[in-house]
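User: I'm putting together a small comparison set for a docking exercise, and I want a reference complex before I start. The sequence is below, and the ligand is N~2~-(3-carboxypropanoyl)-L-arginine. Could you produce the 3D structure with the ligand included, as structure tokens?
Assistant: Of course. I'll restate your input first, then give the structure tokens for the complex.
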Amino acid sequence: MSAREFNFDGLVGPTHSYAGLSYGNIASDKNTNLPSNPKQAVLQGLEKMHMLAGLGLGQAVLPPHERPHMRTLHDLGFTGSPARSLEAAWKVSPALLGLVSSASSMWTANAATVSPSADTGDGRVHFTPANLDSMMHRSLEPEITGRVLETIFADPEHFVHHAPLPAHDHFGDEGAANHTRFCEEYGAKGVEFFVFGRYALDDNKPRPAKFPARQTYEASEALVRLHDLDPGRVVLAQQNPDVIDEGVFHNDVIAVGNERVLFCHERAFLDQKNTLKQLQKAMGGALQIVEMPEADASVADAVSSYVFNSQLISVPGDTQMTLIAPVEAHENKRVKKYLDRISEEEGPIGSVHFADLRQSMRNGGGPACLRLRVVMTEEERASIKPRVFMDDDLYKDLTVWADKHYREQLTPDDLRDPALLDESQSALDALTQIL
Ligand code: SUG
């Protein structure tokens, strides 16, 4: 059956800020308390979506979640009017307010794990929202993510929605950021590749010494079961714990795949040789691997440039693939030299396009973090009713909407302003009408 890949990008929310919330994410830590520009952030994301739609790729949008998350404040005993709760929470801890205000749902690569119908036992597309249990601010997302996905992918004939995995560190699940699907073509049976950071139930296995390994083996394995994947077409591999300690908090910071191609750093996986061998076997020898040697660019280069957080895309009509990389990868001399070389060779990656997503990048969110990939047949796609697919008209409506509702500057102090809550709610109400 023929199928297409759609990128569902998260719209940046009106409270986009730099609160230093993600231990082990170097950009988040480095930019703590810098002023942010939510309007620029949402427009940068929209521009990327519009560009990909213009190249003929399937592109859609997911709405932001409502923030500040007043229910969490309420559950913590901050009652009374919203203005009072916000002020009282701020007095207790500005960091707490930063946490409930985070616009982190924009990084939809962490929204869910998605298995297309060609891979699953019952021939339907399976979704499991990520529990995002490792970081408090992100653990507020799964409930709404689940509801949003159920609303968009509503037809039970085509789509199955699982509950997030149990909300405990043992089953820490970060969604598609640690999941890659390889295939000969999108509609054919694929090979699903799950990368985890540690074993939760075995203390003797290697794990990072400093930073958290957010995804567990037990979580990845549960996803394989839930989505009823063919065990012969699944590979599970452990991330190299040393690179987690160097700031690789998700696999999509060190590897990206598309169709027959894997682009990764040579230090990405704990047992790299065996992992690549298993993938190659599952793909029947068809996998093309582009492995960046440490001698050309280090893991530190990969983390600061975010080159592996690129989107590797098949532009209709092109024989070679295109890499949509962040501009930071252009600014790193070693990385740029390497990219120039591989795109000049006769390899699978033919060109590189650099996108300016600096607002999101300052929180460690590059091009690939902002998108959730969903492979769908034409019939599955046609069953979707909301106006989420990107075209010139939706792009125009969303840029006008962002221009009207978003602030150009937000400092940590502004998060206690009740007017920001009102503005965010009005923005989401207006967005609901648009979508
Ligand atoms: O979970 N940053 C996000 C970035 C997510 C990137 N996603 C992928 N690699 N797929 C995170 O660490 C920082 C928020 C702050 O500090 O204000 C943050 O949540």
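The chain is about 35% helix and 20% strand. The mean pLDDT is 98.
User: Thanks, that's exactly what I needed.
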